[in-house]
Amino acid sequence: MSAFEARIKETAALVEAALDRHLPRRSGPLGRVVDAMRHGALDGGKRLRPFLVIAAADMFDCPRERSIRAGCAVEMIHCYSLIHDDLPAMDDSDLRRGRPSVHKAFDDATAILAGDALLTQAFEILAEPATHPDAAVRCRLALELARASGREGMVGGQMIDIYAEQKNFDLASIEELQRLKTGAIIRFSAIGGGIVGGAGEPEITALRQYAEDLGLAFQIVDDLLDVFGDAVSLGKPVGQDADMDKATFVKLLGPEGARDKARSLVDRAKSHLDRFGARSDALKGAADFVFARKN
Ligand code: GRG
Fold first, then answer.
1. Whose CA is nearest to atom 5 of ligand 1?
2. Which residue has a Cα nearest atom 29 of ligand 1?
3. Could you identify which of 45, 53, 164, 181 might form a hypothetical disulfide with 71, taking C-beta atoms 3.0 to 4.6 angstroms apart as the criterion?
């Protein structure tokens, strides 16, 4: 295991423990939605988004208890999106992170409610004083996460993905779709770390530039994995894009072209962080990890 893999695993364990504390089991019918939230949020995933939050915040010597809370908030949004994306009304996927998706393990209504509850709890966590003593910082975190998640972010991207006539999409249209659907939450993760860590505006701008390139590279690799990955490593079905005749980076650029584009985006993402010197090694490592990932 590389030093970076050890580091992301170590951070993932901290996030896992914090998510577990945020989602205490309950009894009775209320307990069912909590169990479904736990099924969708615990014991799985790379925890890349909270890693970005925590690594960005570490650059500014942010106390870990604050950055882990912001990391949990973004991971809850991510997990809600996966739960809803797997529903029959969307991607209709039975498998997620190598386990039955939430609507398969429970039922559709419970999965909708579990996603809704994770979405709302993310903002509850950000709003609580333990996230940051300054209410203006908490408010900015909530504002940025709301923008990244909603109409002009992930939800908007998902809507385009479902309804646009993608067969005719050119490269610019795919980039715009993915900038919203997956990019916005990745962008929040990096700048959210800067915000909770007390970074200045020029530093937040550098983090945003890094995350914009990283988000696109992440999606290109996702497209490549959908063609060349295997379902066991991915913990979800492959070949879905081709089955739905979706326009993807691989379809438009070819596998080699897509890989070259991802590589150059990763290199450019890292170059935006040069101003931080060795303090940015973890975020630079995350960029290489995104390129090399197998799941
Ligand atoms: C339902 C509002 C709503 C939005 C759904 C993000 C999304 C929009 C759908 C997920 C579908 C998907 C597979 C998108 C590709 C990029 C992506 C988010 C992959 C999964 O993220 P990883 O690889 O997953 O970080 P883990 O399991 O490691 O957390």
1. 81
2. 45
3. 53
Q: Is the CB of 155 under 6 A from ligand 1?
A: yes
3 state SS for the chain:
CCHHHHHHHHHHHHHHHHHHHHCCCCCHHHHHHHHHHHHHHCCCCCCHHHHHHHHHHHCCCCCHHHHHHHHHHHHHHHHHHHHHHCCCCCCCCCEECCEECHHHHCCHHHHHHHHHHHHHHHHHHHHCHHHCCCHHHHHHHHHHHHHHHCCCCHHHHHHHHHHCCHHHCCHHHHHHHHHHHHHHHHHHHHHHHHHHHCCCHHHHHHHHHHHHHHHHHHHHHHHHHHHHCCHHHHCCCCCHHHHCCCCCHHHHHHHHHHHHHHHHHHHHHHHCCHHHHHHHHHHHHHHHHHHHCCC
Cα 80 to middle of ligand 1, angstroms: 10
Every domain of the chain and the residues it spans: 3-292
Question: Distance from the CA of 205 to the center of ligand 1, in angstroms?
Answer: 25
**What is 3-292's CATH number?**
1.10.600.10
Q: Model confidence at 229, in pLDDT bands (50, 70, 90)?
A: confident
Flag whether pLDDT at 248 surpasses 80. Answer: yes
Q: Whose CA is nearest to atom 4 of ligand 1?
A: 81
Q: Per-residue confidence at 1, pLDDT binned at 50, 70, 90?
A: confident
